[in-house]
Structures are given as structure tokens and as C-alpha cells.
Specification:
Largest sheet: 9 strands, mixed
Number of helices: 7
Bound molecules: S-adenosylmethionine
Distance between the termini: 31 Å
Structural class: alpha/beta
Number of domains: 1
Mean pLDDT: 97
Shape: globular
Low-confidence stretches: none
CATH superfamily: Vaccinia Virus protein VP39
Helix content: 25-40%
Order of helices and strands: HHEHEHEEEEHEHEHE
């Protein structure tokens, strides 16, 4: 999806992807990463996700990257966090004590920006991209994540021909083909979540799986 697609979604407040509660797989599986409290967690394509508040509540520092300025500003406003602001090249950085959000395009994010991260969390980032861009995103993520770093990945999978994305379907086979060259992949759980997703039910999508994986960047 081109930047204009996402800017329009935020402008029109068509942000069905934004969850009003913390992701259940995040709560259930975050401890599997066995992180130090002082961990620095990269959240690509973070939107204004409340999952970042959960991660910060574990004592970790959060480093998000989000294209849309309104999303970034809303995150701090809605969570009553006073924020300072710096310009770094073509990106803007919004800082609070525990959460820093880089506003700008992840594809132009310099590799130095993420070299101190010790974990990452991808919910609705990988599945935000159509096929070709998803492959480019997988390479960019692998570039930004240092060797040995673990992340939690949450995906959706469904018969793609039954619905136009986003979210786009990402199968275990896709992960094996495009992420496994860079990451060790461990599937934690795959659950049928069709009943809780009325947009999919209304379009007669026959099944919808949400899956959680631990990814470890290969050395
Ligand atoms: C499907 S939403 C998911 C947001 C968040 N992860 C969540 O769970 O609510 C995808 C987000 O990625 C952002 N985005 C799209 N393209 C981007 C890019 N090239 N660089 C950084 N962020 C981008 C969009 O503005 C949007 O907020």
C-alpha cells in the first residue's frame, strides 16, 4: 500500500485495525521472549496501538515507527503523555520517558536507528502489505533487527480470494519461504478468530486464523 492510502485512512478515521484493547496473544506470549526489564522493543508500523502501553508497562522502552503524523500525535494525546520532538533527517522523533515514536517511512529508516533494540513486536505490520511489498518489508525488517534479537509476530490467514486486504493473508508457508531465511521461526499458537471478526463473517470468509510466532534473527 502506498503512503497516500494510509494517510487517507487516518484522515478519514477509517482505522478498523486499531484495537481498543491489548492483543490477547501479546499478553499470553510476551513472557516467552524472556526479556530483561530494560529491553528496548521495536514496534514497526505501530499506529497508535495500545499494545505499546502494555510493553512499556512491563518496564521496557518502546521504539515505534509510524508513517502518519496524526497517529503518532494521537498516541501521546490519548495516553496523556507529555512529548518532546526532534527532527532526524527525513524522520521526526517524538519522545517520552519510555516511548519514542519515529514518524516517517520505515523503508527509509537508517539501520543505526534500531541497532540498540533487544526485541520487536509486529502486530498488523506484516499483514498490512500486499504480496510484493510484504517481501520488501520482510527484507527491511531483517535489516533493522540485529542478530540474536527475538520478536513476537502476530498474523492473520484466510482464503485471500474471499476478501480484499488489508489485512492481507499471511500463511505459515509464506513465513517459511520469506522469513525463515532470516529468522528462526517458532509457531506458538494458531486460533480460529472468525466469530470475533464480523467484517469477515459478513463477507462469507469461511475461516480466519490468528497466529503467534516467535522470530529470532539468525546470526
Ligand atoms: C494495519 S495498521 C497497524 C497499526 C498497529 N500495528 C496496530 O496494531 O494497530 C498499519 C500501520 O502502518 C502504517 N504504515 C504504513 N506504511 C508505512 C510505512 N511505509 N512506514 C511506516 N508506517 C507505515 C500505517 O499508517 C498504519 O498505521
Amino acid at each position: 500500500m502506498e503512503p497516500s492510502f494510509w494517510h487517507e485512512k487516518w484522515d478519514l478515521k477509517q482505522i478498523g485495525f486499531h484495537q481498543p484493547q491489548i492483543n490477547e496473544f501479546l499478553v499470553k506470549y510476551w513472557s516467552r521472549l524472556s526479556l530483561a526489564t530494560s529491553a528496548e522493543v521495536f514496534v514497526p508500523l505501530c499506529g497508535k496501538s495500545l499494545d505499546m502501553c502494555y510493553i512499556a508497562e512491563q518496564g521496557h522502552n518502546v521504539l515505534g515507527c509510524e508513517l502518519n503524523q496524526l497517529a503518532v500525535e494521537d498516541f501521546f494525546k490519548e495516553n496523556n503523555l507529555p512529548v518532546s520532538h526532534q527532527v532526524k533527517g527525513e524522520h521526526q522523533v517524538y519522545l517520552t520517558e519510555q516511548v519514542s515514536l519515529i514518524q516517517g517511512d520505515i523503508f527509509t529508516l537508517p539501520i543505526e536507528s534500531t541497532q540498540s533494540i533487544t526485541a520487536f513486536y509486529d502486530r498488523a505490520a506484516l499483514i498490512a502489505w500486499p504480496e510484493e511489498m510484504r517481501q520488501q518489508y520482510a527484507i527491511k525488517l531483517a535489516t533493522l533487527v540485529p542478530a540474536g534479537v527475538k520478536g513476537l509476530l502476530v498474523t492473520l490467514d484466510y482464503p485471500q480470494e474471499t476478501l480484499n486486504g488489508p489485512p492481507f493473508a499471511v500463511s505459515p508457508q509464506w513465513i517459511e519461504q520469506y522469513l525463515a531465511p532470516y529468522f528462526d521461526v517458532e509457531l506458538l499458537e494458531c486460533a480460529d478468530v472468525l466469530a470475533e471478526n464480523q467484517r469477515f463473517v459478513k463477507k462469507n470468509v469461511p475461516w480466519l486464523n490468528e497466529a503467534a510466532y516467535v522470530l529470532t534473527r539468525k546470526i
